[in-house]
Amino acid sequence: MAGIGGYNGWRWIFIIEGLLTILVATFSKFLIVDWPHEAKFLTPQEKELLVRRLREDSGEAQMDHWNGKSARRTWKDWKIYVGTVMYFGVVNTGYSTSFFTPIILEQLGWVAQHAQVMSIPIYIVAAVIALITAACTDALKHRYAFTMTGVLVCTIGYSLLLAQKSLSVSVRYFAVYLVTCGGYITQPVTLAWLANNMSGHYKRSVSSAFQIGFGNLGGIVASNIYITSQAPTYPVGFGVSLALMWLCGIACTVFLAGVWYENRLRDQGKRNHRFRLPPEEVENLGDDHPNFRFTY
Hints:
The protein has helices at 9-31, 44-58, 68-75, 78-107, 112-117, 120-140, 144-162, 169-196, 201-215, 217-225, 235-267, 279-282. The chain is mainly alpha-helical and 296 residues long.
């Protein structure tokens, strides 16, 4: 499609993908239902089963009403902001790989479209690693160790890329695998971990939107740190990306310490005073409910 309408082929890729997103989003407005009881494609028995499972998942920690008190509880929760920093740190790597991977591949002798095609195996391997990570983290019911595993894998990859002048091209290519796979390990887990620790329909919705919306500012950082004049070594790009991965790691550690301490307080009964709140407020506390326990 290069030349059609006076646009290069790569511009048409973005135009088509953007139009497809708009089209799907438009139909989604009418296809995705807000609540199980509104789903016309479910039988009454299926609706009842789904509602029961959702309640069992959250237990007593519900937040099904959005009002001034629930809004204050949501926006004053430190976990939202630490979770956003976790995502901000790792999402930079997700964007960064698209900038420097073609450069590394060109050093192997592949150019232009061929270099783009040869980047496919990197993402296939990373996708498989992400699926394995998802299965393992759910089976073990643990998040933190997996986030830090991805950070460490990325650290090795970025360290190799920062020292690439003394390394062969094949080692640099291997480093790209490490960086990409490390990001694919950590990034999905940060999303799941925050959502796991936000109970209540509204609170989980707000926190997920905030985390992704503001966390994706990491993509803006990525687009400005890979300076053309520094290609192909990109010392600033790789250095900043490595620092942001460790920002993610530090935020994950703070998150772990915070939820562990809060669980300890609840085990000691130091949040039981919330039971003395009005019944309608107790039923709408979300994860502030004294019986709720956070996941690690």
